[in-house]
């Protein structure tokens, strides 16, 4: 299978190690991975701010970059959900429609497409999982706690395969961190308080690391942790699954 590696702009700029870990992890499972060098922002920030009419060029470039791959894989749930729900093309409408069915967040690709049952990874630390809202409610990576339904968690299933890793139990398993893209700018005080509460849940339950499938949420919490001079660190799930 031939996979196009979709790396969101903020991951490329601020967390390149997560992108590298994603590439290496996919290659460990025998996937032929290609990184289209002309890729840029998917357009999510503009769309979330009410300017979806300005994302046309982003959409066209995305289609141009990723039309020929069997799958498109990305280490960011929010960007994947944006593409799944909103990618359109005036030039190539059918290609855009098809791409929307072939784009996957890394965790769902590992569990649903590659059907990973075993990992050769080691990470001897206490880890808390942050269930980002896009991943939880949009991509259905885990079961929502308010539903009376069978529990499942794709990130947890993968992390349980990692040698030495201890998952901590959180008091509120899927509470929002308050980042919300441009929400953290428009509603700074509310966003900050939500982030502090989310961080405190991990800290109070003994986490050494906070992980998740959305670096935007992790970036928000990392800023709070650094201001609190905390020893707790954030790390993308790809870096844990790729750790040796």
Automatic annotation (TrEMBL):
Family matches, as Pfam families: CCG
Going by the entry's taxonomy, the superkingdom of the source organism is recorded as Bacteria
User: Ranges for the Cysteine-rich domain?
Assistant: 3-83, 127-221
What's the protein here called?
(Fe-S)-binding protein
Task: State the species of origin.
Answer: Paradesertivirga mongoliensis
